[in-house]
Amino acid sequence: MSDKLPTLVAGALTNVRNPRNDKDVISAGMVRDLEVSPDGEVTLTFVMNQDDPPNLAREARQAISAVAGVTHVDMSIVSDAPPSEAPSSCGTGAEPSP
Fold first, then answer.
1. Cβ(83)–Cβ(51) below 8 Å
2. What global pTM score does this model have?
3. Looking at residues 79-95, what average pLDDT do you find?
4. Is 64:12 a contact under the CB 8 Å cutoff?
5. Nearest alpha-carbon partner for 34 in 54, 55, 7, 59
6. Which of 6, 15, 47, 80 could make an SS bond with 36 (beta carbons 3.0 to 4.6 A apart)?
């Protein structure tokens, strides 16, 4: 059964839908680096947007945990927001240096 476990885990995640875009979390690109070990340990990165429901990661974790054969879930949650840029001098009255 362990050879089918990755398929079962991915299938469970396709049942978790993001109401923001009405896609499952796999199709929406929210699941990255999904790995399932033969002993049932699942690791993944879950990518969230500030507009996503806060409980979506919890729902994904619960869906994975409910799969027979899964023994542990290690999920890293990251934001897909671009890194903040350096503050600009706009509005400060300072002129940029030549």
1. no
2. 0.79
3. 57
4. yes
5. 7
6. 6
